[in-house]
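Re: weekly structure request thread

Next one in the queue (93 aa):
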Amino acid sequence: MQYASFTGVVKFILVILLIYYGLKIITRFFGPLLLKYITKKAGERFQQQFGQFNQQKNTSNSSQEEITIEKKTKSTSTSKNTVGEYIDYEEID
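Done, posted below.
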């Protein structure tokens, strides 16, 4: 059975720490650039979708469809609430 030597364990821990802090430093420098790139691409995609929606809206306006909205009249019948009776009360300090 093989056993890990003390220097091997220390080297392994140092490599892990070096990778961790290296990635931390790299993300600190390149993170904002990556975020800016992602937001730029998302903005372009939204702009493209809005342009398609706007074109569809313009083509539908050219056909001049008539839309009417009919409202229902309110019924004048009164409904009786049989939930309970109202009780007037006073607060006592």
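The chain has a mean pLDDT of 83. Helices lie at 6-62.
Next request, please.
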